[in-house]
Structure formats: structure tokens, C-alpha cells
Amino acid sequence: MKALRDPDRLLTQGLAQIREEFSVPAGFPPEVTEAATAAVARAGAPPPGEYTDRTARPFVTLDPAGAVDLDQAFCIEAAGADWLLHYAIADIGAFVRDGDVIDREAWARGETTYLPDGKASLYPPVLSEGAASLLPDGDRRAVVLTVRVDPAGAVQLDTVERAVIRSRAKLAYETVRDTDLPDGFAPLAARLAAAEQARGAARVDPPEQQVESNGRGGFALAFRPALPAEQRNAALSLAANMAVARAMMDARTGLFRTMPEPDARAQERLRATAPALHIDWPAGQSLDQIEATLDPAKPPHAAFMMAIRRAAPGAGYKPFDPAEPPWHAAVAAPYAHATAPLRRLADRFVLEAVLAIAGGRPMPPGIEEAFTRLPAVMSRAAARDGRIEREVINLAETAMMANLEGCRFHATVTDVRGDKASLHLRDLPVISTMLAPEVFPGDDVEVILTHADPVHRTLTFTPA
């Protein structure tokens, strides 16, 4: 973590510029806000025939401390040798009608856009941070997935229902204690992690470079590794999404999250990179096997994890195609997105599909057509938000180093493409590049910062 001193308000002005460059909406058009408010009033009490009362179940949420758009709540139940994961997901579909003004605005946005000084939500706050969010302040509508996890960690969707739930607690990754969590949370997460390893899943989670608000009007730049509770919670979400994907595949319909494996050429480059980072990768060992040995707390390992992530083709969305079964290489299984409908447009339609499948009903009108449109919409939103995230980090790096031109820094070369080297500074959470035709991945180098430009968000380094 590195605090950012910003006496000239470079970050504040730069964030405003990024919002303008990428047309990040500052709020919602009045007609969308009015429609959302009316939808809350119109919803009233959940119809008894449509929603099962599950308020007796001890659901809790687990999210970043400041989050109020809470998509998921869970409780866990032992069932002989199996575990039952009751996974409640915010029922935004109870408030949004296909083709209404709220729906049209959501299609234009695709997903929630996050910046350090705020976010541009997918849905108006009266929904995403209020009536639809699974806050612990009263009854909430949800789609409850009951996922059975057997002793080997295999998952199966037992039931799907619309239900009324009541969250008992809003737990935070940063402060949660094991005693706060439902019984079975740790052993269930361990079972799922063991199954993931047995499948040969190749999820790579290097520490994330982030710009964060410090809560006092300032910002900090950090490499933030995932916290243990966060990793375990992600395993529950993964299990639910895998169970949803399997149910849709069996029904020969749906929208899937897909990602191919790094091709042979990419893996050859990774094998050349490993020795430079002092990582022993035996000839007979597969990529997923070496990934299982990596420790993100070790800088060379973190650098190699980032190289693996860059080598993998990008993930995307794909409707069901019997000629090309869906596959997600990082998960090593068919996979879908269903558990974050307040933040991702696609999840709302996947939930409606799986509700129909589980209930033995025909697919609701418009769902199949939505599955054909969503891949392009979600891809465009993800690309936009990826560029925004990178520009925010570039801004923070240049603001932090604006007065350090001429200084020397120790760095590790993490990648080389042509005569351009990727650098990871040792003493600051900064990743950059420089022209250096005679370096190799893993080299320790000394560099000079020759120019820092917060306006254009660029750093220029040269070999010392």
C-alpha cells in the first residue's frame, strides 16, 4: 500500500477526465430513476403463490466492507455426507420489465463501472442499493439456488425457486471472523477447492493492482492479494455458477462464460519465462500443475502468475451450441454467470432461464433472443471497464511519481515483447514498460524515471 499525496488534485482532476473520456454516466436520466421508484412501489408485498417463505433460514452476506449492492446471501446445511449450499441471489427481475426504460438503460450500460471515487451502477440505487439489494434490514426477494455438493466436490442444482429471505448479517471480508460465518463454510470451501485442484482448474489470482479510496478524501495505490474469506466466498459463487451451467447444458440452452486454454505457442513462451523467474517447471508437468504450486506472496511467483494471465485468451460469453460445447479453461468445467445480477446484465437472463428449467416450464419470451445479443453487449462493457481500470492505475502511478523524475529504481522484468520490456518496481506498487532490447524475463534491472506525465497518464523509464 502506498498513500498518494495529491496537493495539486491531479487524481481528482484526472478521474474526472477519465469519466469524460469514457462517457461514464454521472447518474441516471430522470425517467429511469422515476421508473425504478415506481417499480419499488408497484412491487408491494411478494405474491404468496410466486415466492416461498425462506425467512427462517439464517442467510448472511459476505462482501467488501463498503458494499451496499449485495447480490448474494448464503446459508449452509449438512445433508448426510453432502453439503447443501442455499445461495440466494438478488431478484432484480422482480422490478425490471423487459423493454421498459430501466431495462433499456441497463442494456446500454452492460455492467456496473467502478472507479475509486464512485461507481456508475447498472441499475438505479433505489434498486441496486435498496429494494433489490440483500441488505440485513428486512425481507428481500431472491432467487434461491440450492446446490448439492457431494464428498468429491461435484455440484448439482437441486432446486431453484423465487423466495423471500431475511439476511441475518452483513459480513465484511476485511473484518469477518470464522465464528461469524455459518457452520460448514470452511469445510465446504475446502471441499470445493480440492475438487477444483482435482479437475486441473487453472484459475490464476495474482495480487491485484488497485487504486482505493482511503476514506479521508484521498487515495492509495496497492497490490491487494485476495483475503482468505474472499477466496472461500468465491468458491461458493463458483460452485453455484457451475451448477447453473450444468443445468442449462442438460436443457440444451443458456448463456455460458467461456475461455480457451493458452495455445501451444503461448505455453512455449511461458516455459521460457519460468527459468528466468527461478521457477522450476519440469518437462512432464502441465500448466495447471505448475500453477497449483505458485504462491502470490512471492514476487517471482506473482510475476509468473501475471504472465500466465496475459498468455490466456480473453474470456467471453457464448449461447449454447450443441456443435461446440461450452468450456472455461480456468475453471476446467462448463461455467455461467448467474450470481451478480445487480452488477452484470447477463445474469438476470440466466436466472430467468434456470428458473424455467428447474420448474419444467417453457422458456420465457425473449430469453433465447437475449442470449444471442448479450455476448456483444457484455464484451463491449468489459472492454470499456478494462480500459478505465488501466487508465485509473496509470493516473495513480503518474501522480505518485510526478516529482521523482531523475530518480533510480530497482525493478524486475516480467515480460518482453520485441524490444519492449514490462517492469515491476520492487519498492513501489508500479507496473510499467520501457524500451530495452537486451533484457529477459526475470532480469533484475536498475532504471531511471525520465518523465512522468499525469495529464496523459504515462511514465517513461530508461535503463540506468
From TrEMBL:
BP GO terms, sorted: mRNA catabolic process
Signal peptide limits: none
Every RNB domain range: 51-360
Coiled-coil residues: none
GO MF annotations, alphabetized: RNA binding; RNA nuclease activity
Classification via InterPro entries: NA-bd_OB-fold (IPR012340), RNase_II/R (IPR001900), RNase_II_C_S1 (IPR040596), RNR_Ribonuclease (IPR050180)
Record's protein name: Ribonuclease R
Organism whose genome encodes this protein: Novosphingobium colocasiae
